[in-house]
Write a structure and sequence with these properties.
- 49% of the residues lie in helices and 6% in strands.
- It is of the alpha+beta class.
- The chain has a five-stranded mixed sheet, covered by helices on one side.
- Helix 1 packs across helix 7.
- The radius of gyration is 18 Å and the shape is globular.
- The relative contact order is 0.15.
């Protein structure tokens, strides 16, 4: 019996193939969903540096605008020379390395690496468990997402009601990853996260990669179920406000 090869995604980070034709208006270009937590990471860094960029909103259902990329997920960042970079944390490092180089590269600062990994592996999964803690909160979230993101009217209706059910199942699966119930777990994770905020930011006086990574995750939760936990946290609420002001992403 002949094995059918499984197509693998390219590794995260800078991709070999240049795609200058994907640059819009001669500016660095980000392919994104408007409400995507990983996209908010990149928006926060670009905003904080005052970097002008083009934004291409990807159709969340068919991802038509991203068919050219083997990565197939948002965000994808393309610089003015056509270099394609995938995976939000890698994008943060790439942008900073070509700008001010104000925070350490991956592998140079274990603490920064730890908290950047935390944003994806722990915090991102923790907020999903809270946002989609019931079918009602899932519908509320999908109603918001389908209004803000680039859904067609018909696609919006389908994705709101069917997506609400699917994301409720996803929320359940994420909740099972942690010992505590979703709200208690998020509170606990914010308590843990606050231990890494030394001074005003993870980077002390100025934000580093960990600040942008974790801010992006929490920004996607703003206005949805459970954000009150962030707003009432003694340390994280102040840090969150400083990151909003610093990045201009409100």
């Amino acid at each position: 019996m002949t094995e059918v090869p499984v197509e693998k995604k390219p590794p995260s980070g800078v991709q070999e193939d240049l795609v200058p034709e994907r640059v819009v208006d001669g500016l660095p270009t980000m392919y994104c969903f408007e409400t995507c937590p990983f996209c908010f990471k990149v928006k926060a860094l670009l905003g904080s540096r005052g970097i002008e960029y083009s934004k291409v909103e990807v159709d969340p259902t068919f991802k038509t605008q991203l068919k050219w990329s083997d990565w197939g997920m948002v965000p994808v960042f393309v610089d003015v020379g056509g270099t394609q970079v995938t995976d939000s944390n890698y994008i943060l490092h790439y942008i900073d390395s070509n700008d001010s180089g104000s925070f350490p590269r991956m592998g140079e600062d274990p603490e920064q690496d730890r908290w950047m990994d935390f944003s994806n592996k722990i915090l991102g999964k923790s907020i999903v468990a809270v946002i989609y803690t019931s079918y009602r909160t899932s519908l509320q979230a999908l109603d918001y997402v389908t209004r803000v993101d680039n859904f067609s009217f018909g696609s919006r209706l389908i994705n709101k009601w069917l997506g609400g059910f699917i994301m409720r199942m996803v929320g359940k699966s994420r909740a099972k990853m942690f010992e505590l119930p979703p709200r208690e777990n998020l509170q606990y994770q914010l308590d843990e996260m606050s231990k890494g905020i030394e001074g005003d930011f993870f980077g002390e006086e100025e934000p580093n990669g960990a600040d942008y990574a974790n801010f992006g995750i929490l920004r996607s939760m703003q206005g949805l179920n459970g954000f009150d936990i962030v707003e009432s946290h003694q340390v994280v609420s102040g840090w969150y406000g400083r990151m909003q002001e610093h990045s201009g992403v409100y």
